[in-house]
Amino acid sequence: MTDTVVRSADRARARSADRRPEGRRGRAGVWRQRAEIALFVTPALALLVAFIVVPIATAVQMSLYRWKGFGPMVDFVGLRNYVSVLTNEVFTDAVVHNLIIVAGSILLQLPLGLAIALLLNRKMWGQGLLRTIIFVPYVLAEVIAGVVWFQLLQPQYGVIDTMLAGVGLHGPEQGFLGTPEYALWTVLVVLTWKYLGLAVILFLAGLQGVPDELYEAAQLDGATWWQVQRRITIPLLGPTMRTWGFLSMIGSLQLFDMVWILTGGGPANATTTMATFLVNEGTKRQNFGIAGAASVVLFVIALVLALAYQKFILSRDSKEGGR
Amino acid sequence: MSADMDTAAGRARRDQASDRPDQRPARKRTFSGGSPLVYAIALVVVAVTLGPVMYGVLGGFRTNAQLAEDPSGLPSPWVWSNYAGVLAADSPFWGYFLNSTIIAVVTTAVVVVFGIMAAYPLARYRFRGREALFMVFVIGLLFPATVAIIPLFILITQNYQMGNTWWGVALPQAAFALPMTVVILRPFLMALPTELEEAAQLDGTSRIGFFWRILLPLSGPGMVTVGVLAFVGSWNAYLLPLLLLQGDMRTLPLGVADFSSEHSADTAGVFAFTTLAMIPALVFFLAMQKRIVNGLQGAVKG
Fold first, then answer.
1. ipTM exceeding 0.90?
2. Which terminal residue of chain A has fewer beta carbons within 10 Å of its beta carbon, N or C?
3. What is the tens place of the pLDDT at every residue in A110-123?
4. Where is this region: Disordered (chain A) (predicted)?
5. pTM (2 decimals)?
6. Domains and CATH numbers, chain B
7. Going by C-beta distance under 8 Å and a sequence separation of 6 or more, which residues neighbour residue A129?
């Protein structure tokens, strides 16, 4: 499509060329076009260079030096920062925590989101309102949701512990967020609450793309509701689910706000993520070399997982000739 | 559970079939009808979704004594002092609100203006290296702000001298939002009919004139979509402001987090502050719901 647009644009230019000599594609025309392109693209590129390229390059540079944040970087240590990051149990645990959040988010939100989307994908009273409500947690800042949940989860005084006590159960003494065995799972539950709405909204949009004729045909064949969902709806929702999974994975790998608010990475580093680790090293301990190495490792992990996801999961879409 | 749903849906289907035997069922009617079970599940979903938010809103109307005595009770009597305290003229809330607003507006303006400018030649000029230039933006998608956060903090405070300023937060936020913006806007601009350019050229309009007078007005919907996404992203951002802003320059998310840790004993006050901090985002969301949802779906369909 691109080509046709461009080609007809060219044709138009050629047609008007005899009337407007300066529009002809002479040497001057080429330079003029280049100048226009530069004029349009430079502001965006300048911003990318100043705030993405230079910082990323600096992160790589930092990772090779021992540096406390002032003066020039002179104390070159080669790959030693990487060795100390990768052998640091806090960091390797953080990687595991991120992976648990990646897998846990998908395993919880995919079936729940799918079930709710299938449920809402029918004509029912209050459907629009329901869709709006389910999306509310997603729109709130992670920090604001985190602060509210932090209060709900307060040990003893919090409403969740009170409700548990009401049915004869007792939360852990230090609270769900204060007990190392529960903290990460509690964070996962709060994240599920926060992000389920996104999955539902995207799945609902995907369901709009399933042609009615398929439902009608299945209905004529006497298929039950459950059969229709399993054989028609869910397979056709594949591309949407796979793309959603990608977004969810990338988000989980960068998880910071919610953990920082709920636990700060504690207790006893039970909820540290790669992002909280590198922010801690960079801002609280001034270990910029370590923070740089952790940044690069985070990027490499995210890139490898993204490429693997692309190769093994998203590639199905193009093979099937989907969108 | 599935068996229940089967029969419920089946019943609904049969009812419908007998109702309108010869009519072609309307869109999505095929397995329609809310059975009581569906409504029950929907109610549970609503309760779980809104419960925490409503608890915060109501908690702001209670006193700390009420909250301690019966954490799951309703306000009795309702007190307004928590909310009034947050909204008082000397409350830091208004400063946070102002900072959040200015940073979000600047971020949005920069993203939309620079984004549409970059997308224009990438969509409607023909030149060598166009796809390569577009790839620069696509690759930009792969670099999350988290990876660059520590060097950004150092560069912005030391080299760019923009620490603790609105620009120091807005510009990097805009930079990280630009790749997605260009990726969304380019196909949008490509879809506009070529006849527009031909007509403009016959009238003797230059390509820059075309951009200003024809393309910009026509790209309104696309720009609103990317603008809304940038605005919400900036409004909710925490990590970058956390590292760059202190004192009076803090934004609402920072204010909420700090208020909650500084007044940890004043639970009712924290609830009131948090509730008031949610309102702008919720109002904005309700006003822009369609755009936000469309934008996200556009991103997924990519």
1. no
2. N
3. 999 998 888 888 77
4. 1-25
5. 0.84
6. 35-79 (no CATH), 93-301 (1.10.3720.10)
7. none
